[in-house]
Amino acid sequence: MTTLIPKGFAPALLSVLLASSAQLLMKGGIAALPPMADPLTFVPALWHVWPATLAVATGLFFYVASMLSWYFALKSLPLSIAYPLISLSYVIVWLAAIALPAFRDTFSLGKAGAMVMILAGIYLVCGKPRGG
Question: How far apart are CA 125 and CA 127, in angstroms?
């Protein structure tokens, strides 16, 4: 039986999605937290900005889930294939940062070109071999 996604790619892609989501949640949450200049005022303040605290905590949880998915990916994929897939997170986070108004990142042709190069590199490393 032939599968559309080779064994190990699904947990690797899930790991990338979880890590990308973690980055976005933590950025959004940390931006809304008070400065951490004084720990005695910072820690109690976490309870007053609970949506931001929850976003950071959820981001940390997603990182743990990402590592668990990565464990399963590494059990099935060679590291030379698995590791380049992590670069997909650069593309995902960049797209989300320009698409979601909360992040206020801007589009530029230079950055778009860089994302195309990242995708091309991933394809060259992870794509199907063409006979040599």
Answer: 6
Q: Which of 128, 119, 116, 101 is CA-nearest to residue 16?
A: 119
Q: Are 22 and 59 in contact (CB under 8 A)?
A: yes
The residue-averaged pLDDT of 64-92 equals 95
Kindly tell me if the per-residue pLDDT of 132 is higher than 80. Answer: no
Provide the residue range defining the domain that includes 96: 9-126
Q: How far apart are CA 71 and CA 65, in angstroms?
A: 10
User: Could you give the angle at the alpha carbon of 63 between the alpha carbons of 57 and 66, nearest 5°?
Assistant: 145
Residue 117 lies in a domain: yes
Instruction: Give residue 51's identity as a one-letter amino acid code.
Output: P
Residues 45-77 pLDDT 10s: 888 888 999 999 999 999 999 999 999 999 999
Cα(105)–Cα(99) distance, integer angstroms: 8
Q: What is the average pLDDT score of the chain?
A: 90
> Residue 131: inside a domain, yes or no?
no
CA angle 60, 79, 115 (to 5 degrees): 65
pTM score: 0.85
